[in-house]
Amino acid sequence: MSITENVVKLKSTIPSHVKLVVVTKTHPPEKILQVYHAGHRIFGENKVQELLKKQELLPNDIEWHLIGHLQTNKVKKVVPFVHLIHSVDSMKLLKEINKQAEKINRVVNCLLQIHIAREETKFGLSFSEAEEILKSNELTKLNYVRIVGLMGMATLTDDHTQIRKEFRSLKKFYDSIISTHPSFVVLSMGMSSDYYIAIEEGSNLIRVGSLIFGERTYV
Ligand SMILES: *Cc1c(COP(=O)(O)O)cnc(C)c1O
Q1: What is the pLDDT of residues 57-106, one digit of tens each?
Q2: Which of 34, 75, 134, 135 has the greatest number of beta carbons closer than 10 A?
Q3: 191: Cβ below 6 Å to ligand 1?
Q4: For the chain, how are helix, strand and coil distributed in percent, rounded to 5?
Q5: Is the CB of 210 within 6 Å of ligand 1?
Q6: Is the CB of 23 under 6 A from ligand 1?
Q7: pLDDT (tens digit per residue) in 124-158
Q8: CA 150 to centroid of ligand 1, rounded, Å
Q9: Which atom of ligand 1 is the closest one to the Cα of 46?
């Protein structure tokens, strides 16, 4: 099947309340344009350099999501255009985003990335660290960032019970927050291998790459 057919098929199988971020990392602009011309506008990159390069080359009405780790020294470059930063994992980073956003009078939407996987290598906050940020006085002073939800990645495993358990724990945490944080509307969880489990467990935004473009080759 073609890239276009893959996107159309995926979109037709997910519920209408679930948004799709097409993850374009490692793929050239020509391939991304195929998805664009099929009518899709929401794309995600995990590296800032690659995001900047593609944002410059591709049409202006694309909604770009940064889904990978963000270093404070690169915040300035993404703040002018990014639609949603999925990977906020410290107060320090939030403050820098706020500082750069204030300079250009733009409010930047962010998700707190929560560590739910077993792997130690993945970035993210614990539930209690996230709670601390959400309850902090400092946050009330950051008028140029809006935390609109949470992001999480499950363990890379074939054990569906484990994956489901991890997504379920994040949904439970998300639900515990929404009553006090009405700005919370996004629960970003699920990738090519586990998006259907994520949706069953309450995700409303999935980030899918290889299912659409095929396996990535890193050079
Ligand atoms: C690469 C990536 C994805 C998409 O992964 P696929 O398995 O290709 O669907 C989703 N989320 C993040 C944070 C990623 O880095």
Answers
A1: 999 999 999 999 999 999 999 999 999 999 999 999 999 999 999 999 99
A2: 75
A3: yes
A4: 40, 20, 40
A5: yes
A6: yes
A7: 999 999 999 999 999 999 999 999 999 999 999 99
A8: 16
A9: 15
